[in-house]
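User: Predict the complex with FE2/S2 (inorganic) cluster.
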Amino acid sequence: MKCHRCDEQGVVDLRHRRAAYCAACFVQRCREQVANTIRSHRMIRPGERALVAVSGGKDSLAVWDLLLDLGYEADGVYLGLGIGGYSDRSGACAKEFAESRDARLLEVDMARDVGFTIPQAAPSRRAPCSSCGLSKRHLLNKVAVDHGYDVLVTGHNLDDEAAVLFGNVLNWNLPYLARQRPALPEAPGFARRVKPLVRLTERETAAYCVIRGIDYIIEECPMAAGNRHLMYKEMLNSLEERAPGSKSTFLRGFSERLMPLLEDLAAEERAGVGTCSRCGSPTTGDVCAFCRLRDQAGRPPARRRSGRRGRRPARRGRGHDAAE
Ligand code: FES
Ligand code: ZN
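Assistant: Here is the predicted structure with FE2/S2 (inorganic) cluster placed in the model:
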């Protein structure tokens, strides 16, 4: 198949666009998509400093590479979750990329800097991803705020966003739907959070990395078994297989039709945010979810188990972190 833009042989076939691209035009197209997304949502303004949350996977390395190529001042931050060899290998990919681009990479090691790791924080009977997601949101935002960055960039792609939307719709979780947007504005204690890859699929970011020679960690997190997000992704992939373009239609319909109707709820959510009495982070409760997680991680396993069977903790003061 010929490239959609020039006469070269196409190497990336995008079924949902009914088009193929040669390597150079594909990379150019990715840059244009990201530049347009940043512009239309006013994600990064002139002169602002961006911090990219880098996991060592294809999406975060692709978005970092794209931002650097588009001329943004973008540093990276790697969060060591303490998940054995998986964390070692993903950290190595992040460092290798930073060195190859002569870019600055900040590093947070949960065991060293926070006192616990994700395997230690994970409740034994639930998928650990909720503790992991909570820790990432809290710690990455803290690094961005403490180091004076204007905006925190994440590598969420179209597939991620469609899967999150699917889960939120399945549960009709209106507060989460109100917060699901490509750019969440800055607020006291929060850096702006943006997702410049929302128009690119997982396949596109993987192809981008291969073409650009970016070495990324391919293996899935070993703790992700039972993760609902992955299940929703698989379901949407089978839908996409039969009806190409379904995922982007689903996501675009949400942002164009439903998101504007949820503005009031989003503003209400933002107005209800106070600060954690222990760490000062934004939360709707007395103590933020991360501080509660830290308490839980510090308890011996036996006590954690008996705590679940014993008296229920008082509900008062339990809210959610505004970034949840
Ligand atoms: Fe968070 Fe695997 S990366 S639980
Ligand atoms: Zn706190």
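DSSP finds 14 helices and ten strands in the chain.
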